[in-house]
């Protein structure tokens, strides 16, 4: 996964509605170190096979094929698993990588950066920290 391979982390640009993701109101979302946990069974039911593969099995979708590669609507991109807001549409740019690219995150606390040395190169995997 490359630094630009972010499509699998986000859902379409729209206002964040955590209840739609299965989080109860009053969840631990307000507590900094509280991780949201979903069972694998629940995730398999709720996510598409591609979303599950990419978010849970470190898969990658094909470049230039995702529905958000050329998405231009204004809004917030959020984690497809837990609903955490990750990126604002104003920070999206065309990197010619085939995946949505953003030059900033909503908050550094909401993402994790991990080195990826696969395929003979150094890339940075960006994922939701929840």
TrEMBL record:
Q: Entry's InterPro entries?
A: Met_Sox_Rdtase_MsrB (IPR028427), Met_Sox_Rdtase_MsrB_dom (IPR002579), Mss4-like_sf (IPR011057)
UniProt keyword Aminoacyl-tRNA synthetase present: no
Q: How is the cofactor bound?
A: Binds 1 zinc ion per subunit.
What are this entry's molecular-function GO terms?
Answer: L-methionine-(R)-S-oxide reductase activity; metal ion binding; peptide-methionine (R)-S-oxide reductase activity
Q: Which domain of life is it from?
A: Eukaryota
Occurrences of domain MsrB (ranges): 40-130
Q: What is its EC number?
A: 1.8.4.12
Q: Which Pfam families does this chain map to? A: SelR
What cofactor is needed? Zn(2+)
Reactions catalysed, semicolon-separated, are: [thioredoxin]-disulfide + L-methionine + H2O = L-methionine (R)-S-oxide + [thioredoxin]-dithiol; L-methionyl-[protein] + [thioredoxin]-disulfide + H2O = L-methionyl-(R)-S-oxide-[protein] + [thioredoxin]-dithiol
Q: Which GO terms describe its cellular component?
A: cytoplasm
Q: What processes in GO biological process is this protein linked to? A: protein repair; response to oxidative stress
Please indicate if the UniProt record lists Zinc as a keyword: yes
* Protein keywords: Metal-binding, Oxidoreductase, Zinc
Report the top EC class in one word. oxidoreductase
Q: Where is the signal peptide?
A: none
Function, as annotated: Methionine-sulfoxide reductase that specifically reduces methionine (R)-sulfoxide back to methionine. While in many cases methionine oxidation is the result of random oxidation following oxidative stress, methionine oxidation is also a post-translational modification that takes place on specific residues.
Which family is it part of?
Belongs to the MsrB Met sulfoxide reductase family.
Q: What is this protein called?
A: Peptide-methionine (R)-S-oxide reductase
Q: Which organism was this protein described from?
A: Brachypteracias leptosomus
Please name the gene that encodes this protein. Answer: Msrb3
């Amino acid at each position: 996964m490359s630094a630009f391979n972010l499509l699998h982390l986000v859902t379409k640009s729209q206002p964040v509605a955590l209840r739609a993701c299965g989080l109860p109101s009053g969840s631990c979302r307000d507590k900094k170190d509280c991780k949201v946990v979903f069972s694998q069974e629940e995730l398999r039911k709720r996510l598409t096979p591609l979303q599950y593969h990419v978010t849970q099995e470190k898969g990658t979708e094909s470049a230039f094929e995702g529905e958000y590669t050329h998405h231009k609507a204004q809004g917030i991109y959020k984690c497809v698993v837990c609903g955490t807001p990750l990126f604002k549409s104003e920070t999206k740019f065309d990197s010619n990588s085939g995946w949505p690219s953003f030059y900033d995150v909503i908050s550094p606390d909401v993402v994790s950066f991990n080195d990826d040395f696969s395929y003979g190169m150094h890339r940075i995997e960006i994922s939701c920290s929840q």
